[in-house]
Specification:
Layout lengths: L8 H10 L3 E2 L10 E3 L2 E2 L2 E2 L4 H6 L4 E4 L10 E3 L3 H14 L5 E5 L4 H12 L5 E3 L9 H7 L7 E5 L7 H9 L3 E4 L7 H4 L2 H17 L3 E5 L3 H8 L5 E6 L6 E8 L2 E8 L6 E8 L4 H13 L4 H10 L8 E4 L4 E5 L5 H13 L5 E6 L8 H12 L5 E6 L1 H4 L7 E3 L2 H10 L6 E5 L14
Parallel strand pairs: 1-2, 2-5, 5-6, 7-9, 7-10, 8-9, 10-11, 11-12, 12-13, 17-21, 18-19, 18-21, 19-20
Antiparallel strand pairs: 3-4, 13-14, 14-15, 16-17
Helix pairs in contact: 1-3, 3-5, 4-10, 4-11, 6-8, 10-11, 12-13
Length: 439
């Protein structure tokens, strides 16, 4: 029988080079892959190892000896730790730029924009979907082959120390924090905890002489960066001191932006396919990084103009009756405020704002939901609808309140909205995609 311990990673890596595809779900086994029998709160992957092999996997990596039947069952001390160690070992074999992207909001959109821009010149690989945690980052790394020239790694976190842990696996050479805000406060404890955790990427770049891309007009980020020293800092933002300077022309509701390089009179204008004024910072990050890696400026502008979201983040959906801003993949206090600020400047005759509960705010939940309602009321002549138990705690403030998504769906089905621009914003668990059916 084969037993690979962490100190024998070279042997396991040799096996990975023969079968360089990783599977973790028996419902989606890829032929000749390595199946890693991960465990969760409600499942034990070891129990599915035999099924994985029967479905086409070449080997199954397990950590419970009772499930080992023959040499195709590779016994290790801990499957998750082995996956992480193997990914780190593989990362060490790749001598290419690794761009680490984190932030409270905007990291996925920024990652996608970076990929769109850099792929105009390079063979790139970027995190798929939201595989940005202690499992997703290793899976992303193991999907990068020798043909890739630049890797873009999204890193998420909901507790202190997580970004540091992911940096030690992915070892980014370049990086950026899109922003810091009030999210996952249950895990971080406070906004200071958020800044400390996101700042772990800055710590890594400082300690490993990496390059930082900085939104230099963001006071939180500049303060965090100012406490550290970096090999190189590339600044982008709205003021003339930045290397890349941009501004919003209009939001109708899609964004039109203008940008140029410091000291250059050449202005570029992009008619984008994203909504949300807050996304201009994500565009400028992609422009700055593209320019740093010498992507031709016209190609950069084409890439940000062509990018179209498909992940319910700042995504415009035209229905038979309305224009819907689908931004319900996730929500927190900061992203809610940004989405509402955008609705204030969106050019539309009739505006409807439908907001759902924000999760994982801990003790701050009551106050933060109240603040969101107050801010929503600053949008002139907008119809305001609030959904969820946390919002309903404030129903005396005024507005339309519904306990559940199904409740508001029934109401909208009975009294349809027409000829309006509608914002749908909520935490993923509110399942706001159901509302599209009646809009």
């Amino acid at each position: 029988m084969k037993t690979f311990l962490r100190m024998e990673l070279k042997a396991l890596y040799h096996l990975f080079k023969q079968y360089p595809v990783v599977s973790t779900d028996t419902r989606h086994i890829l032929p000749d892959s390595l199946f890693f029998a991960l465990k969760g709160s409600n499942f034990n992957g070891n129990e599915f190892a035999e099924q994985a092999l029967a479905s086409g996997a070449a080997y199954a990596i397990i950590d419970e000896e009772q499930y080992q039947q023959d040499d195709r069952f590779v016994l290790v001390e801990n499957v998750l730790e082995t996956l992480q160690a193997l990914a780190h070992y593989h990362r060490r074999q790749l001598d290419i730029p690794f761009i680490g992207v984190t932030g409270t909001n905007g990291k996925t959109t920024t990652k996608e924009l970076l990929n769109a821009v850099l792929s105009k010149k390079f063979k790139t690989y970027a995190t798929h979907g939201n595989l940005n945690n202690h499992i997703g980052v290793p899976l992303t790394l193991l999907a990068i082959d020798q043909h890739i020239e630049i890797a873009i790694i999204e890193m998420g976190a909901n507790h202190v120390g997580e970004i540091d842990f992911l940096c030690r696996i992915a070892e980014p050479t370049h990086g950026l924090i899109s922003n810091v805000g009030k999210a996952h406060l249950e895990g971080f404890g406070s906004f200071e905890g958020v800044k400390k955790t996101k700042g772990e990427l800055y710590d890594w770049l400082q300690d490993n002489k990496g390059t930082l891309f900085l939104q230099a007009d963001n006071l939180f980020l500049t303060e965090m960066a100012g406490r550290r020293q970096f090999k190189q800092v590339v600044k982008y933002g709205f003021s003339d001191s930045n290397a890349v300077i941009g501004r919003l022309i209009k939001a109708n509701p899609l964004l039109q932006i203008e940008w140029h390089l410091q000291g250059s009179e050449d202005l570029f204008q992009a008619d984008t396919q994203l909504t949300g004024a807050y996304n201009i910072e994500n565009f400028l990050a992609a422009i700055a990084i593209g320019h740093y890696f010498n992507v031709p400026l016209v190609n950069i502008n084409a890439a940000i103009s062509e990018y179209k979201p498909t992940n319910n983040r700042s995504q415009i959906t035209k229905t038979d009756r309305n224009t819907v801003i689908c931004d319900y993949y996730n929500a927190n206090a900061t992203s809610m405020e940004a989405a509402l600020a955008n609705m204030r400047i969106v050019e539309a005759e009739h505006k409807v704002v439908i907001l759902g509960d924000m999760f994982e705010l801990g003790a701050e939940s009551f106050d933060e939901h109240k603040k969101v309602i107050a801010y929503a009321k600053t949008i002139q002549d907008a119809r305001l609808i609030f959904v969820g138990k946390a919002f309903c705690e404030h129903n005396e403030i005024g507005g339309e309140f519904f306990e559940t998504t199904n409740d508001v769906k029934m109401s909208l089905a009975n009294e349809p909205i027409s000829d309006s621009t509608i914002l749908l914003k909520a935490s993923r668990g509110m399942a706001f995609e159901k509302l599209l059916e009646v809009l």
